[in-house]
Write a structure and sequence with these properties.
This protein is mainly alpha-helical. The chain contains 9 helices and no strands. Helix 1 packs parallel to helix 6 and helix 5 packs across helix 7.
Amino acid sequence: MTRTALILEFLALFVALPLGYRFSPVRVPALPLLWVVAAYAWVQLLRDPRFDRAHLWNFAPLPGRLGAILAVFAVVALLLWLGVRSFAPELEWSLVRQHPGFWAVVMVAYPVLSVYPQGLLYRAFFFERYAGLFPGKWATIVASAAAFAFLHIIFRNSLAVALTFGGGVLFAMRYAETGSLAASSFEHALYGCWLFTLGLGQYFYHGTIATVATAMRR
């Protein structure tokens, strides 16, 4: 694939598609679209003879990084909780308190339905496909995080973009360090599940959770 074609593909997937979704007058479910794009990335990776398919999961590095992952998570989770408690106490544990059954569903479904396809697209595919467009590992990490954050403009709030840029740097660093989508996805799932548990989930969906949760209570 030529450099020009790579740049055009990059712009289409990581700029035009989120912008189109953000400003579309038609509300399309986000998860099916994410899976379609992730499936395209998966096919391209499998067609690339240079790509090590072990990177699509590669559980082996996770146990050795688990202590570091949990230590960083503990600090960030505490800071996020203090922030919510101080500035938005009405949100604290709101999903757990109001819709405990649906919260439990999110804790199980979110890592599978949302985290893994995002990791496939923004870590494994991004690093394999576009690393040559950037002048080194750190530039690729930052670009991956920026693309990941830019995706979250679809939620129409700056908090989602800001939080996912920070998380995107962390998850891309983990993938670059380990070559393990398992390690990166585990870390991503920790933070995502914590945001929903803490009460910040409303910044990361279009109202679907409230609708489904209400239906489950009937």
